[in-house]
Amino acid sequence: MIKSLVRATLTAGTAAAIAYPLFLRRRCLTWGATPEEAARALPGDDLRPPPCLISTRAITIGATPEAVWPWLVQMGSGRGGAYTYDWIENLFGLDMHSADEILPEYQGLKAGDKLPLGPKGPVMVAEIVEPCHALAFRSEDGNWVWSFTLVPQGATTRLISRNRIATPDAGPALRLFDLLVMEPGSLVMERKMLLGVRERAERTERIEVPV
User: Fold this and answer.
1) What does the pLDDT read at residue 20?
2) Residue 5 — φ and ψ, nearest 5°?
3) H-helix or E-strand spanning residue 9
4) Within 10 Å of residue 82's Cβ, how many Cβ atoms?
5) What pLDDT is stored for residue 41 in this prediction?
6) In order of start, what are the domains of the chain with their CATH numbers?
7) Residue 142 contacts residue 127 (beta carbons within 8 Å)
8) What is the pLDDT at residue 182?
């Protein structure tokens, strides 16, 4: 019984390890994005040149960029959270508490501001802050860039989220873990975040954003 269970588990794990890179990885890394969006250059790309892992995920929001921007600019640990699964984030001590309202005290983000990810996490530096258009953060070690681009489409907005991540010191085991665990996990968290931004922005009136 136990041997059969172990054998079945190993078989399923092997099948997943083979299927993900061949059939599922591209969908995972480009959820919601069109081929053009995944291929286009975006603000912040030059902050982390290749080689690096690139994910581009996107969503259509039934609101103007002016209504989306306040939710993005207040994101962060001890700020407006990340609109995803707080309980998972806080298992890692990230101090994320997703806000359901615009927080005026966090609307003045500017280039050069530093946002720690929890008490012991990496520090993200705001590198590009172009209200209602582009927002990009880079980790202090330079290995992670997370950018958001807002593209108006009539009365709606395309919100494009791009991650550029380098792991220069990772060995084969860590690279395999990143491939099979971290990449699918990032989709789960980022999909929830994008849906969270959409839900909040769509119930928000047009807001004048402080410059």
Assistant:
1) 58
2) -65, -45
3) helix 2-19
4) 22
5) 97
6) 29-202 (3.30.530.20)
7) no
8) 79
Rounded Cα gap, residues 27 and 150, in angstroms: 21
Pick from 137, 181, 184, 139: nearest CA to 161? 137
pLDDT attached to residue 71: 98
Of 26, 77, 81, nearest to 53 by C-alpha is 26
Side-by-side strand order, sheet with 156-165? 53-61, 156-165, 144-153, 134-139, 123-130, 114-116
What local confidence, expressed as pLDDT, does residue 209 receive?
42
Half-sphere exposure of 155 (CA within 13 A, CB side): 3
Q: Which of these, 183, 145, 164, 161, lies nearest to 71 by C-alpha position?
A: 161
**170: DSSP letter:** -
E-strand stretches of 100-208: 114-116, 123-130, 134-139, 144-153, 156-165
pLDDT at residue 7 in the model:
52
Mean per-residue pLDDT pooled into runs of 10, the chain (211 residues): 46 48 78 98 96 94 96 96 95 93 97 91 94 97 96 96 88 72 90 97 64 36
